[in-house]
Amino acid sequence: MTHQTDKSIKAIILSAGQGRRLLPLTENTPKCLLPVADKPVLVWQIDALLAVGVTNITVITGFQVGLIEDLLRQRYAQYPGIKILFNPFYEVADNLASCWIARGEMDGDFLILNGDTVIESALLHKVLNSQAAPITLSVDFKDSYDADDMKVQLDAEGWVQQVSKIVPPHEVNAESIGLIYFRDGGVQTFRQAVEEALRHPAELKSWYLSIIDRLAKQHLVNSCSVKDYRWCEIDFIEDLSRAGIIFSQ
Asked: pTM of the prediction?
């Protein structure tokens, strides 16, 4: 299932962190290289992107960058568009800094994918064919949301009102899965917001979703439901086994 498009779409995968909540598995292995159903998380992501025709892929790395370089050399040598950008601040900063490192790639339509979200290509296909909007947040739904979920409030038309871990329970009606699509004006708006934010030292500890939350207040962020598609975010060891079950089907 290849996504036919007249302009090439880039993907940026945020994989700089170690994943300390998965220790001891991440003692020497970055979270993105942990195996899910016999394939590293990063390989699931890259294979899904290639399957929908996205071949320009930038992986933002930090912890154990050499292992990721080895993997890309071994598996994707025939894809010159797959490359690495190193984030030297990964120990002291959150993923907003990784977006800053990648800002040079934000020169046309692009996807941002969290380094710990395993997805299937059909889900990507749905997002790439979603209703046009400057920024499209991929969301799923469940009966209740826990403290660690990236919670989302939507309006009646599906536009994002707010996104953060601390949305009050009575206002939550979706969760962000860690995949965002930027199109047209949303590209430059996000890039400028990232550059502006990191002029303030306190923002080093911020998630890039804090910017998406701000832009949502300007009616720039629509949602795309990925309900019934396969995805799994890997934060804890039990998530690894759950992902293994989902993706071995």
From this structure: 0.94
